[in-house]
Amino acid sequence: MNIDLSRRGFLKLAGAGVAATSLGAMGFGAAEAAEQAHVRAFKLASTTETRNTCTYCSVACGILIYSKGDVAAGEEAHVVHIEGDADHPTNRGTLCPKGAALKDTVLSATRLTQPRIRRPGSDTLEDISWEEALDKIARALKDDRDANLIETNDAGVPVNRWTSTGFLAASATTNETAWLTYKVVRSMGIVGFDNQARV
Ligand code: SF4
């Protein structure tokens, strides 16, 4: 929804907001609620709503991310607001303090947004492409599994244990993604498997 709010219109709205707040303080709660409902439409005007999952813990609360910028038109999208998803069965729109501060995490200047590597002998981390990172991980996994997979125990019973590599997954995910991750990790024989929430 595009709303063209002139300077005069904004001042009138702001004045109405102050008046309504004052009325609320005097006991005119209905007037204040009506004013808040009126202002809310402007808060998210011209934004794109995207459903997602809070990244912090295994509760995996549903969130709504609002961004401005038309990606289809070649513009860069910027996150302007994040709030709880009222339709999500886990949190029904609520968020804990960490979730409520998610926008700061997303927009943090120190947030890691691409893979990094510390090469042998180096004391610094350098950015690499996702392509290179995935190739390196796949190569390392294959080499280590070929060298260390335990196919049978002392009694000759097949066990297919791979104990020299561990896998740390993310807990904030869907059941389907978690099931697929579990299947891939266990089918390779990895024993050490955990996520950041330890569940
Ligand atoms: S909002 Fe809080 S409780 Fe919900 S997933 Fe995020 S960190 Fe966990």
What's the layout of helices and strands?
Elements: H1 7-25, H2 29-43, E1 48-53, E2 62-68, E3 78-84, H3 97-100, H4 102-107, E4 116-117, E5 126-127, H5 130-148, E6 150-152, E7 158-169, H6 175-187, E8 190-195
Parallel strand pairs: 7-8
Antiparallel strand pairs: 1-2, 2-3, 4-5, 6-7
Helix pairs in contact: 1-2
Bound molecules: iron/sulfur cluster.
Residues 54, 56-57, 59-61, 91, 95-96, 98-99 line the site of iron/sulfur cluster (SF4).
* Domain module tally: 3
Note the main sheet.
3 strands, antiparallel
Q: Find the structural class using helix and strand composition.
A: alpha+beta
Which consecutive residue ranges, at least 5 long each, have pLDDT under 50? none
Find the count of extended strands (DSSP E, 2+ residues): 8
What is the general shape? elongated
Sequence of strands across the biggest β-sheet: 1-2-3
Which percent band covers the strand fraction? 15-25%
- Helix run count: 6
Structure overview:
With 199 residues, the protein is an alpha+beta fold. The chain folds into 3 domains: 1-45, no CATH class; 47-110, Single Sheet (N-terminal domain of TfIIb), CATH 2.20.25.90; 116-195, no CATH class. It has 6 helices and 8 strands. The strands form 3 sheets. Strands 1-2-3 form a 3-stranded antiparallel sheet. It has a 3-stranded mixed sheet with strand order 6-7-8. β1 (48-53) and β2 (62-68) form a beta hairpin. The mean pLDDT is 86. Iron/sulfur cluster is lined by residues 54, 56-57, 59-61, 91, 95-96, 98-99. The site of iron/sulfur cluster has 11 residues, from α3.
